């Protein structure tokens, strides 16, 4: 059996998340997770909506939003360049409830300071928001910058994870 691309929607406090995956006889591999209005969101290449193969992804997302999960353990496949894949993989090393600056992330990857924009561009192309937690990367001054899902969602996620204090109004 050849792999086929399918998608589903997962309701969340951030809006309906679009999950896309490749399913074969060995199961589902998640290829993208996007948010409504996401800048540069991966397109849906599947006309087929199937919820069943995404059962584990739904379970883990529900647990994350309920505060019971701090890491995702799902089979993932991403495109991208070798550099992008290295940046995305490095996100797994930023613990839940913490943040890292673009400079810190670049230093971990051996990227010269003069080329940090490449790290930002790679983060902006991350096809697996939440699962590969690019929302945990912030400016050196603590500013929330450059999240494809929007800065307000980044703030919500970091507050949910305890990395930011809730804003009182």
UniProtKB/TrEMBL annotation:
GO terms for molecular function: methylated-DNA-[protein]-cysteine S-methyltransferase activity. Keywords: DNA damage, DNA repair, Methyltransferase, Transferase. One of its GO terms (biological process) is DNA repair. It catalyses: a 6-O-methyl-2'-deoxyguanosine in DNA + L-cysteinyl-[protein] = S-methyl-L-cysteinyl-[protein] + a 2'-deoxyguanosine in DNA; a 4-O-methyl-thymidine in DNA + L-cysteinyl-[protein] = a thymidine in DNA + S-methyl-L-cysteinyl-[protein]. Its EC number is 2.1.1.63. Residues 82-163 form the Methylated-DNA-[protein]-cysteine S-methyltransferase DNA binding domain. Residues 9-77 form the Methylguanine DNA methyltransferase ribonuclease-like domain. The keyword Signal does not apply. InterPro entries: MethylDNA_cys_MeTrfase_DNA-bd (IPR014048), MethylDNA_cys_MeTrfase_DNAb (IPR036217), MethylG_MeTrfase_N (IPR008332), MGMT_N_sf (IPR036631), WH-like_DNA-bd_sf (IPR036388). The keyword Cell membrane does not apply. PANTHER family: METHYLATED-DNA--PROTEIN-CYSTEINE METHYLTRANSFERASE. Belongs to the MGMT family. This is methylated-DNA--[protein]-cysteine S-methyltransferase. It comes from Streptomyces filipinensis. The lineage of its organism: Bacteria, Bacillati, Actinomycetota, Actinomycetes, Kitasatosporales.
